[in-house]
Design goal:
The chain has 209 residues and is mainly α. The chain has eight helices and no strands.
């Protein structure tokens, strides 16, 4: 059911998904298995957050600011620090297996989201396919960031496909008049851009610290 094409408001869409989720929970086993997939992105996000928190607890220590610090710092460490073989303080990184699992769950979750999302927006068939394919490719490629394959090549490929999927997502939200979600998405993109600016501009980072 394409709610956006029928002019549904975000509130109507929310009620639909809540009702649909409750219906999926109370269905017979065969029907439940067929429809419970709609809850998968939410479940995947929750699992990722839990794994992320566990990984930060297991991280031995060290950051770009203080290599001798103990544990993970929410202000001075990055997610990538949890994925390294050794922590910045030189100790073996016991957080890596959990962090890698979290990254895998995140990639699968976002791939699944970009597969499902286009079905519910006011977009043509080609536009929906572009979002589905580019989003899935981006997340598939992103997981190879933590292999021995050229880091810059993987980053550029994942970012390019991800950008296509994100632009398509924002256009779909706007065309479907889901302006609240559209604005929230733009805010998130601005925060990501600000984070990248801080990472790549060392002088600015030093001034703010």
């Amino acid at each position: 059911m394409d709610l956006a094409k029928n002019g549904a408001s975000p509130e109507t869409v929310s009620r639909y998904f809540v009702g649909y989720s409750l219906q999926a929970i109370t269905m017979k086993p065969i029907d439940k298995a067929k429809n419970i997939y709609i809850l998968a992105p939410v479940l995947g996000t929750v699992i990722f957050v839990v794994l992320y928190i566990v990984a930060t607890i297991l991280y031995p220590g060290g950051s770009q600011v203080d290599k001798t610090s103990i544990g993970f710092s929410w202000t001075n460490n990055y997610w990538c620090n949890l994925l390294n073989e050794n922590a910045i303080n030189g100790q073996y990184n016991t957080a890596k297996p959990i962090a890698m699992t979290g990254m895998f769950v995140l990639c699968i979750t976002l791939s699944f989201f970009w597969f499902l999302f286009p079905r519910h927006i006011n977009f043509g068939k080609i536009g929906k396919l572009v979002i589905q394919i580019s989003g899935t490719l981006s997340m598939t490629i992103a997981y190879f960031l933590f292999t021995n394959i050229n880091h810059d090549l993987i980053t550029n490929l994942a970012a390019t496909f991800g950008l296509v999927a994100m632009v398509g997502t924002f256009v779909g939200l706007y065309k479907s008049k889901w302006l609240g979600l559209f604005a929230f998405g733009i805010l998130n993109m601005l925060l990501i851009g600000l984070n990248i600016m801080f990472i790549t501009t060392q002088n600015l980072l030093s001034i703010c610290q």
